[in-house]
């Protein structure tokens, strides 16, 4: 039984809006590094049952991949409180993924939102 959720354009918005912390793995079946990363991602999902681990098959869901500008896979994205706080291509080793999850858990989302608002204010001037 998989601890990850298959994300589609039909369920993506609802899943991200209803969950405070979502990790998203953009992948494809033909991608060797994606297949290597899959067991690492599954294990992290099992070790963090309070978080939502989603997978986007970029072949089946090209609109989602395009909407997020995914140009290389695997790409891991972390969304907290509907804000993408991390996005990076490449298969991560288990200790790096665990550290990344820990860092994302510790983020002060009020500070993150304030930083985004400050950046948006500067770009509008």
TrEMBL record:
Taxonomy, superkingdom: Bacteria
InterPro entries assigned to the protein according to its UniProt record, in alphabetical order: Thioredoxin, Thioredoxin-like_sf, Thioredoxin_CS, Thioredoxin_domain
Gene3D superfamilies (UniProt xref): Glutaredoxin
Pfam families linked: Thioredoxin
Thioredoxin domain boundaries: 1-106
UniProt cross-references to SUPFAM superfamilies, sorted A to Z: Thioredoxin-like (SSF52833)
Family indicated by similarity: Belongs to the thioredoxin family.
Protein name: Thioredoxin
Organism: Streptomyces rameus
């Amino acid at each position: 039984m998989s601890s990850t959720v298959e994300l589609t354009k039909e369920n993506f918005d609802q899943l991200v809006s209803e969950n405070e912390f979502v990790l998203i793995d953009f992948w494809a079946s033909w991608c060797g590094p994606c297949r290597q990363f899959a067991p690492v991602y599954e294990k992290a999902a099992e070790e963090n049952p309070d978080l939502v681990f989603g997978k986007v098959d970029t072949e089946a869901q090209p609109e989602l991949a395009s909407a997020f500008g995914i140009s290389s896979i695997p790409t891991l994205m972390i969304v907290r409180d509907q804000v993408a706080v991390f996005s990076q291509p490449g298969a991560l080793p288990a200790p790096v993924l665990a550290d990344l999850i820990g860092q994302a858990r510790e983020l002060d989302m009020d500070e993150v939102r304030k930083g985004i608002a400050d950046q948006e204010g500067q770009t509008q001037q």
